[in-house]
Amino acid sequence: MSKTRAGVLAVLIGMAAIGALHHAETTGTRAGGQAAERPGHQAGRSATSTTGRAAGARTGRRGNPASGRRADREVTPIVIAHRGASAFRPEHTLLSYRVAISMGADFIEPDLVSTKDHVLVARHENELSATTDVEKHPEFASRRTTKLVNGARRTGWFTEDFTLAELRTLRARERYARQRQDNTAYDGKARIPTLDEIVLLAQKHGVGVYAETKFPTYFASIGLPLEKPLLETFKRYGWEDENDPVFIQSFEPGNLGRLRPLTRIRLIQFVAATGAPYDLVRAGDPRTYDDMVTPKGLARIAEYADGIGVVTKRIGPGETGGIDGRRISPAALVGNAHREGLLVHATTVRRLDARLRAERRGRDTDRVTEQVRTWLRHLYRLKVDGVIADDPGLARAVRESLRHGD
């Protein structure tokens, strides 16, 4: 074993022990070096067994290095920590990412927006009031404004109106304070992290980064396009091709289309439950997300992307995705995508959603964990290539139990 791998292994074993202190029973997190056994990870790189692709192959359709590269053999799906371990720490903080790593996540997922000085930082949206203490800063009161972002009117404080130095004075807080009361204990303890910090953290612990570009059309329209700083950051840390532990995801096909000729990094087209990508709507293109999940739509995605991220409303238990009233079963959707050489990642399995469903129906919220387990088992049995979850410990535990025939 190389010194680098030995060092990473030691760090991960230590982090896994820490993870055992965080919901060891309720999340299924296992002590004893679990994090060091992530599928497809070596020190700073991912092996092809994670995705079932042949190393370095560039076969398939022109413009899509992924098409045709998904192997016929069984693959181990990756666990992607949604905004970090956001079920247990305020989202998009280094606190949340560290706990996700300790719980055994293979990838941590930052949503990326830009600052005024064109630095990429992790926030789910560019408006700051829902997840930071910006309202408590009188020096920024005059920056509260209303903007039209991807066709929606939003009022508040926006990352693009702050330099990184100014954002550093803010502190993160829990978005869902009532539903995630334990998380509020960490309000005010973390800053907004930069993409650089997130990549450094990931490489230190031998995990990958699953980055989402947020509102790329909007940011390009105000002179802060996301593509260049994104690729420059990954290149700075040696991540440039499909064998590196990094994905770039987007709801906007135009964003991915611009990235495709610039990088060999794997690209993921997200497919929402309803509606259409904003950039297509803006351009007058009639295609919808329903169109994207048809065989023809998947073939088109395969021309520029390596996979799809499908919302659980389309492939969850009892759910269908479709167009014009025609039903597309979850199994058919996943199978059709795989036939086009596309990876399929399911997004997002949330403890929060299960709790809210139970509350609405007057049911026992103590059964939330078992409900989430049921969803995860369903998705893994569909042969998805990855699951995005706010409880990566539980997602990992269910995956491992199925692998061992439990």
Automatic annotation (TrEMBL):
Give positions of region: Disordered: 28-75
Q: Specify the superkingdom.
A: Bacteria
State where composition is biased (Low complexity): 43-58
The reply to whether Signal figures as a keyword in the UniProt entry is yes
- Write out the catalysed reaction: a sn-glycero-3-phosphodiester + H2O = an alcohol + sn-glycerol 3-phosphate + H(+)
Gene3D superfamilies in the cross-refs? Phosphatidylinositol (PI) phosphodiesterase
What's the Enzyme Commission number for this chain?
Answer: 3.1.4.46
- Tagged with keyword Transit peptide: no
Task: Please give the SUPFAM superfamilies that the UniProt record associates with this protein.
Answer: PLC-like phosphodiesterases
Key words of the record: Glycerol metabolism, Hydrolase, Signal
Location of the GP-PDE domain: 77-399
- Residues annotated as signal peptide: 1-23
What InterPro entries does the record tag this protein with? GP_PDE_dom (IPR030395), PLC-like_Pdiesterase_TIM-brl (IPR017946)
PROSITE patterns, per database record: GP_PDE
Please report which protein family the annotation says this sequence is part of.
Belongs to the glycerophosphoryl diester phosphodiesterase family.
Specify the protein name.
glycerophosphodiester phosphodiesterase
In its UniProt entry, the species of origin is given as Streptosporangium longisporum
